[in-house]
Amino acid sequence: MFNILVVEDQKNMRESLVIAFKRAGYHVDSAESGEKAIELFGVHIYDLAVVDLKMEVMDGLEVLLHIKHINPHTEVIVMTAFGTIDSAIYAMRKGAYDYITKPFQLSDVLSVIERALEKKRLSDKVYNLQKETNETYKFEGVIGNSPVMMRILNTLMELRNSESTVLITGESGTGKELVARAIHNNSRRCNKPFVVVNCGALPENLQESELFGHAMGSFTGAIKDKKGIFLEAQGGTLFLDEIGETLFSSQVKLLRFLQNGEIRKVGDNKPIFLDVRVIVATNKDLDEATRNGTFRKDLFYRLNVIRIHLPPLRERKEDIPILINYFVNMYANKLKRKPPEISGDAMNILLNYSWPGNIRELENVVERAVTLSKNDHITIPDLALQTLPLLDTMNIATEMGGIRAALALQEKKTIIESLRKYAGNRKQAANDLGISTTTLWRKMKEYQIIPKTSYNTE
């Protein structure tokens, strides 16, 4: 049985919804304020919350943000007056499943709830699969339930029996080293060395020596033999970060190793054969680097066997609440304190920020906030607001307009498809859509759908 929480400050409306939901077979609790709702979420687990947006003291948007912080897997449906649909669209950007405009038919509400709970059922399956995967495989730190992250996790599972070279691309701070470590930890080499090298940090005149070693006397200052990083990684995995910063001379030697499994120390022509898996990463466009001649094409082809691209955080914002929760708990545990809650305003800023430094920047901000917060709540001052410029409000408004238009177009197309299916019979179409005939007629009028004609979607 699904558990539902109704958050509504108007008594009659609240009690009507509770009765209707119980008759439909759900277990239902209610809260007359946002504060009471947050209190209930602290002691109960709810599959779905139906929240009124306009309430005194703590409004529905703040309740939504709190809910998603406490349990990101809870689905939320917001209720709003017709004149405040913009607020409902904004709530959907913050994680709400859908919105209902007042006044409404209870049958319409129940239909939306059924769809939301079906999504919850499917999401739980994905979550449980991911949890099972993380318990079986060592993917610590590779976090997210967005579609792109689920695809990446699936790729990591498929690589567990592979020895192929992997190229990881993405902006700085997206977690490339975490992915490389996950590949190593789930391979047959997991008990062998995992050696990390930032190629951009190696001095140009010593790059070959650092990577492949050198023989005593091979150059001024070479007073003894040097082992080299490749030898240190023998039997394990070598992660070469910022591979685009390597010199041509180093690229030649790396290519030889990938082709033949051999290296040669600087000043020594004797080949050394090694068993090392190579994983490389870059925040540069290697395709472009090969075209302009700064990176060898033959080496690029050898490295580009399996490519994993990590998108910037701004392109997978649905993962931000999960990452915030992970970092809050991690740093609270380190400080041996109770994980603080994040205020609605602070969460709003974190969700709207563009995160040019990606996950690394988010982690640093959360660590600072957890460390400096003086009570059980993280507020805006704890975030060092001067370092967090908000996204341009015009861009946000444009994005909201795009979401609104997309939702309307999808709703129009769905209605037209149902009407076509039943040859214009509005009663059958309404039943198929799970709404009343009155609501269907109103939607047809709103979208200028002419009854019993061609139902053009254009």
Description:
The protein is of the alpha/beta class. It has 4 domains: 3-126, Rossmann fold; 147-309, P-loop containing nucleotide triphosphate hydrolases (Rossmann fold), CATH 3.40.50; 314-387, Helicase, Ruva Protein, domain 3 (Orthogonal Bundle); 393-446, Orthogonal Bundle (Arc Repressor Mutant, subunit A). Helices cover 47% and strands 13% of the residues. It has 18 helices and 14 strands. It has helices at residues 11-23, 34-41, 60-70, 85-93, 106-136, 147-158, 176-185, 207-212, 229-232, 248-260, 286-291, 297-303, 320-334, 344-352, 358-372, 393-421, 426-433, 437-446, and strands at 3-7, 27-31, 48-52, 75-81, 98-102, 166-169, 194-198, 237-241, 262-263, 272-273, 277-282, 306-309, 341-342, 377-378. A 5-stranded parallel sheet has the order 2-1-3-4-5, with helices on both faces. A 5-stranded parallel sheet has the order 7-8-11-6-12. Helix 3 (60-70) links the parallel strand 3 (48-52) and strand 4 (75-81). Helix 2 (34-41) runs parallel beside helix 3 and helix 16 (393-421) packs across helix 17 (426-433). It is elongated. The chain starts with a strand and ends in a 12-residue tail after the last helix. The model is unreliable at 385-402 and 453-458 (pLDDT under 50).
Question: What's the total count of β strands?
Answer: 14
Tally of contiguous helical segments: 18
What fraction of residues sit in β-strands? 5-15%
Amino-to-carboxy terminus distance = 42 Å
Give me the CATH architecture of the largest domain, please.
3-Layer(aba) Sandwich
Biggest beta-sheet profile: 5 strands, parallel
Give the CATH level 1 class of the largest domain: Alpha Beta
